[in-house]
Please model this.
Amino acid sequence: MRDDQDTRYREVAAAYGGALQRLARAVEINPERRLDLLQDMHVALWRSLAAYDGRCAMRTWVYRVAHNVAATHVDRERRTPRGQVALNDIEHLPDVHDVGGDFEKSEALERLTALLRDLKMPDRQIMALYLEGLDAAAIADVTGLSSGAVATRISRLKTHLARTFRETSHA
Amino acid sequence: MSLADIHTRAQRFQSRIRMRNIFEYGASAIVIGAFAWIGYLVPDAVVKTGAALVILGTLYVCWQLFVRARAASGDAAARGLSWADFHRAELVRQRDALKSVLTWYLAPFAPGMIVFALGVAFAPMAGLAFPAALGIALSGLGFIAMIFFAVWALNQWAAQKVQTEIDAVDRMRGA
Model:
């Protein structure tokens, strides 16, 4: 039984490990707490696979579990306000050698991730899933909202993000 | 993260829940110990009864905490529910606990606290005249009532805030 669970977990972790990392990045700025969150996601995923009964696609299941762990994390963090960003965050600033196109790309990605972190739930989840390439129907499966509601929110969020992105660029 | 790490962390998760429960029961054990000691030391039967009732009330609250902690074990995220179902269930659990605080948290202590306060005020060993004893009893009961009311009102206010969040989730689902 546990062997099945372990095998399934290995497959799922190989397929969605990157997506979980990106989700953790969109949720938590502090590297230590981010790592903690990522590990929580993996543990919840492993535990959940004991109960996976195929009621939805594996991809939907994985995103549901990971996003619910993320939502719990956000809720907990909201109730325990933290101080400044830790010194460790400095390592995540662009490297001095990271110039030109790489720099712009990584800077743009950092800013987009920061904008995502400013969004409330479930908007943050919807945008994170959208950026993973899921369509409105798949996002609706993960979040439990209607496809129509998801599509409307995506459209509004894209406008909001584009405007904020431009404003911060000019600033 | 290796599978061995996952297994270890999953076990640690269970230990963390156990430790949280032990901490809550530890606080209750202190209350029980203190009232058991008072009940043993004070010869007055009314005070003894009051102390025994407080202990019974604490045990009931402990059981309620156990039942409610099990429901909020943190494992809910691993049940594969959609965000809306998961979040709503969590909010409903919180709202119900806050809303019913009178029945599961305050009321169990009330009989013991009332009998105990009366017992202390009217105990023959206190040697107080009836009006003075009555004054002490009434101010003690008034103080207890005030604390109970404040706890109840704060919880109702918090439950109302949670209900607003539930309504927002329902609106999103219905949209």
Summary: The first helix of chain A runs from residue 2 to 27. The CA atoms of residues 25 and 74 of chain A lie 12 Å apart.
